[in-house]
């Protein structure tokens, strides 16, 4: 007797989708965003979690890198994977377990050609300063000063002078660390100094930033606030286009990646995959058509009442669920 060929399993569409993710983190205990040979990193922690969930290696791409000790409220990254469920379930899966200073706050499906870094139209950072010694529970998240006053008015004047689209190479990293391939012209759209009691917050928005540019902008404003240089010197320093130690790099612990801006048109949301919905709809159709099919075969309707059919002598058997 010839062996019957086994039916081929139905093909399942496992095409990966692109996901945009927003993550908040306390950067104190991390060596920064980018994976390194030694030390714990944000990227390494996130890729480890995702790889365990999907049971395959997952690589993520960030909107930018943050140094060790820098925190985040709105850092973004994207990755590709097949996930036929709502994004909220994926967010719950990533956040479940040891939090380790990380929290996923948003996930959405985006177009396949979206890129977290090149699609960004701007970024916002903020830097927190405490006049005097901060409370212990705040010390990880702000720069504490040993004195009680800063000339905030002079700082605001200096900040205003720096606004606009200019060459900011002088405010890049000292020794040009990681700046070899960076375009130095940036559009500094906002540089604001706020004060509430002992807390001073510096908020900056730009089309992009050079490596360590935000921390050196803060360092320059602190020099002005301390009375160690006039506000006009910040502008002259920028125009000289030379990196020197005259402008210090503020410590990492007061810096927060606040928000990444994207054009809404580039965030075309994808509809939830309808794989499971389609299966459910087909099952419902089968259930609805089953009574009629049973009657044609001489089997009673699904409600248990008798029915007539060929070959049953007019006495059909009730269909039992």
Summarize the structure.
With about 325 residues, the chain is an alpha+beta fold. The chain has helices at about 40-55, 85-95, 150-160, 215-225, 230-240, 275-295, and strands at about 15-25, 60, 70-80, 100-110, 120-130, 145, 165, 185-195, 200-205, 255-260.
Describe the structure.
The protein is of the alpha+beta class. The protein folds into two domains: 17-118, 2-Layer Sandwich (Alpha-Beta Plaits); 127-257, Pseudouridine synthase I, catalytic domain, C-terminal subdomain (Alpha-Beta Plaits). 24% of the residues lie in helices and 24% in strands. The chain contains six helices and ten strands, in the order βαββαβββαβββααβα. Strands 1, 2, 3, 4, 5, 6, 7, 8, 9 and 10 form a ten-stranded mixed sheet that branches. Strand 2 and strand 3 form a beta hairpin. The longest helix is centred in the C-terminal third of the chain and has 22 residues, at 275-296. It is elongated and about 80 Å long. It starts with 16 loop residues before the first strand and ends in a 25-residue tail after the last helix.
């Amino acid at each position: 007797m010839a062996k019957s060929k086994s039916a081929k399993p139905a093909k399942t569409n496992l095409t990966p989708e692109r996901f945009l993710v927003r993550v908040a983190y306390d950067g104190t205990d991390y060596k920064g965003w980018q994976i390194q040979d030694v030390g714990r990193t944000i990227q390494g922690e996130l890729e480890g979690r995702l790889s365990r969930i999907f049971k395959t290696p997952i690589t993520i791409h960030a909107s930018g890198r943050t140094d060790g000790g820098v925190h985040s409220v709105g850092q973004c990254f994207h990755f590709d994977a097949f996930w036929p469920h709502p994004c909220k379930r994926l967010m719950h899966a990533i956040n479940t377990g040891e939090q380790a200073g990380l929290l996923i706050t948003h996930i959405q499906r985006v177009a396949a050609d979206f890129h977290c870094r090149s699609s960004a139209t701007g970024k916002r950072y903020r830097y927190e300063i405490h006049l005097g010694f901060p409370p212990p529970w705040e010390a990880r998240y702000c720069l504490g000063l040993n004195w009680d006053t800063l000339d905030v008015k002079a700082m605001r004047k200096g900040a205003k002078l720096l606004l606009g689209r200019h060459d900011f190479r002088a405010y890049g990293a000292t020794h040009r660390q990681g700046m070899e391939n960076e375009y130095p012209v940036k559009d500094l759209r906002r540089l604001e100094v706020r004060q509430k009691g002992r807390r001073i917050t510096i908020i900056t928005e730009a089309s992009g930033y050079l490596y360590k540019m935000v921390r050196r902008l803060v360092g320059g404003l602190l020099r002005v606030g301390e009375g160690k240089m006039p506000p006009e010197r910040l502008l002259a320093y920028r125009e000289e286009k030379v990196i020197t130690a005259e402008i210090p790099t503020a410590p990492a612990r007061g810096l927060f990646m606040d928000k990444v801006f994207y054009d809404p048109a580039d965030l075309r949301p994808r509809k939830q995959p309808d794989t499971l919905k389609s299966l459910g709809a087909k099952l419902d159709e089968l259930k609805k058509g089953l009574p009629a099919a049973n009657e044609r075969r001489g089997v009673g309707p699904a409600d248990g009442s008798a029915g007539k059919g060929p070959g049953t002598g007019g006495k059909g058997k009730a269909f039992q669920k």
